[in-house]
Design brief:
Shape of chain B: globular
CATH superfamily of the largest domain in chain B: Thiamin diphosphate (ThDP)-binding fold, Pyr/PP domains
Largest interface: B-C, 49 and 38 residues
CATH topology of chain A: Pyruvate-ferredoxin Oxidoreductase, domain 3
Number of helices of chain B: 13
Largest sheet of chain A: 7 strands, mixed
Helix content of chain B: 25-40%
Strand content of chain A: 15-25%
Order of helices and strands of chain A: EHEEEHEEHHHHE
Distance between the termini of chain B: 65 Å
CATH topology of the largest domain in chain B: Rossmann fold
Oligomer: heterotrimer
CATH architecture of chain A: 3-Layer(aba) Sandwich
Number of domains of chain A: 1
CATH class of the largest domain in chain B: Alpha Beta
Structural class of chain A: alpha/beta
Order of helices and strands of chain B: EHEHEHEHEEHEHEHEEHHEEHEEHEHEH
Number of strands of chain A: 7
Strand content of chain B: 15-25%
Largest sheet of chain B: 8 strands, mixed
CATH architecture of the largest domain in chain B: 3-Layer(aba) Sandwich
Chains: A alpha/beta, B alpha/beta, C alpha/beta
Shape of chain A: globular
Radius of gyration of chain B: 21 Å
Helix content of chain A: 25-40%
Number of helices of chain A: 6
Number of domains of chain B: 2
Distance between the termini of chain A: 27 Å
Number of strands of chain B: 16
Strand order of the largest sheet of chain A: 2-3-1-4-5-6-7
Chain lengths: 186, 381, 280
Amino acid sequence: MDRYEVRIGGFGGQGIVTMAVVMGETASLHDDKYVVQTQSYGPEARGGASKSEVVMGDEEIDYPKVQNPDVFIAMSRAAFLSYIGGLKENGILIIDQDLVNIEGEIPKGVRVYKIPATRIADEKVGNKLATNVVMLGAFTAITGALSVEGLKRQIEDRWPRFVKTNLQALEYGLEAGEEAEPAIIE
Amino acid sequence: MKSLPERVMFTMGDIAAAEGALSAGCRYFGGYPITPATEIAEWMARRMPELRGAYVQYEDEIASITSVIGASWTGTKAMTATSGPGVSLMLEAIGLAVMTETPLVLVNIMRGGPSTGQPTRGQQGDIMQAKWGSHGDYQIIGLTPASVQEMFDQTVQAFNLAEKYRTPVFVLADETVGHMREKLVIPDEKDIKLVNRKQPTVDPSEYLPFKADDDLVPPMAVFGSKYQFYATGLTHDERGYPSDKENIQIDLITRLNDKILKNADDIIDLEKYQLDDAKIAVIAYGTPSRSARRAIAIAREEGIKAGLLRLKTVWPFPEEAVAELATEVDHIIVAEQNMGQIYHMVRSAGAPTPITLMRKPAGMPQLPEEIVQKIKEIDSQ
Amino acid sequence: MTTVQKTLSHPMAKYIREDRLPWIYCPGCSVGIVTNMVARAIDNLGIDFNKVVIISGIGCTGRSSGYFKTGSFHTTHGRAIAFAEGVKIANPDLEVIVISGDGDIAAIGGNHLIHACRRNIDMTVVCVNNFNYGMTGGQFGPTTEHERYSQTSPPPIGNYEHPFNLVKLAASSGASFVARWTAVQARRAARSIQKGIEKEGFSFIEIVGACPTAFGRSNRLGDGVTMHKHLLEVAEIQNGLPPHEAELDYDNRIVCGEFVNIEKPEYTAVISRMRDRIEG
């Protein structure tokens, strides 16, 4: 895998940082990739725009921040507008369509996937807190950047008390990702 | 109940520094919460009691660092962690630690300044502060890790140097390094080399607490031992007694400076990357050094002979290595996440070789492309 | 000959670095008396002096640690208590004593005092209150009474500020043992220091002293003997009085005694409980 950049944006409290951390843990500890995970946040503990990033690859990561994401996952309108810049041509954009509408210019060839992660977590899993795991599942199905096996193991290691809920959320997310039909930006 | 850390973790630089300290044998942490170093305190609050150590949260940074000096004099390896505003408050006590030759480690997760600045954004604005912040003439040791693994390794090293040279040691990490997560491998205990301070062996009646050995470092007694001693921030003679004599001041200050400067070769740690045939060298440390590394890879692809001297130690400043580098290359670029601090040291060591500063007093380091651009500009001259 | 010399030496000399004498204190100063009180208290207790650590801050009283023949440390201004906390927590087997002045402990180090009281860390703080910064030549401090004269509170008004009552401050901050004596009540004071050392918790003992060279001179209070005589005259012993009634009116009435002696969990004991619980 060449240097692969993922950016995730949302508001504080959605689990934006956790999502990137689990992504990093899976890639680093289970998939044997070099990984750097970073985040930027403001003074708000809840609310406010939150951004987290993962850079992974088969070689050591030098520059630790995302420059031109291969994938951008947007989970709030504010984050979408703030962090869409730099998305690669032919890259991947994953949005929670209940929270984000596509606005403005999007680079050519970008494939847009709409995943109602919050709704799936709320209605199918029965716990909105699982939104980020649903989205992780969708991301994995869409990009293949993480191994499903590694992700499952990491979920078990990380949340031993909530394994069932989270694995269920992961399954729904994987399913949603597999089923999603991308719209391609021309 | 006792939870040992995973030997392999995907974790933050802050936490790696805390684990490094624990592996080095640190059993006392005195601190005060401050962004972006709080994670170190939080980790220590959980881990210290497991190892029968102490996490103590003080009323301010002044008490924190002073208590660390006190703890160190019981023979306990001790540390604090903070950020710029906290360091500013601690500087008087750093002088006390220098003067009383107290081993301790201070991890500064550097954020944007001056004043409250940008608490959640990184910077490298405290490099000169670490060296010159307390009053009077003194030397300090300052290490600059650039990855999560180095946060662990260099915190271990910081304790070893503090113990060996009886001095405060700064770990100067920018916020990006402190808050980024990467894989951390904690070596087996037997593979971690530890240094402990020298203890006196003479009869207590003959003990001179501030009489140095040939390495310029005096053996250190601890409270509660059979050795009686008085330590003071006042200028003191070998007995530790205050003195206002001129020769005592000259001897003490000279020795305190020399014990670092004359052992600089032992202390300094550098990494050379693609420097063998380089015509243009970049000097950087911390996160900007990672941008520089990428920039050099790009420049090399385009046939430009560029290389990187990465400083893992900024204090004592590797004057000789920089002077030597300056004779080998045509041009040096210094990339720092500040308005130019180590730049001044490079300029004084590297003259007359042209030296260009790339300054950036902000949360993101120079982009690799920006450094490539500068390398190209210089290359085409 | 040797026996003669022995009988001539002071009974407390064994605790003192005699090679550092004569000490720096002015004639008539109380700090020497307080040094003796601390030595007496240790002697009465018969504890291993090597296990005693004496710590001070800056100022005249701040120099006292240097005269004790044990592990002793002279910290920066105001930080003696913070240093002492690190020592005690890192090695709870040590007996930690802080001796410092009112300026050191209640002004620049005031924050450390109240928080150490609150934490209830086992140590004994002996604060010599001589109502001014003596070493720098006699400026008003945190215990200087309203309208008293000093180098920085000159006539015709004197001190614009109002003093702390250190007994009230320590008691309300949570110290588990609080006492006040004047420098002339040496035996009672030594006994309270002794109790403070024995107490498992934070002990605060204020010794009201005389600084004839600076405070005395600015306020025309006479020489050291006169000032100490005055302390004896106005000292009023009221053991067990609620601390909020322990008034200090320099001219007329200095309420002395032991005002607080309570039991509450001590910091290093609680740390040790935490460790044991984790180890199961």
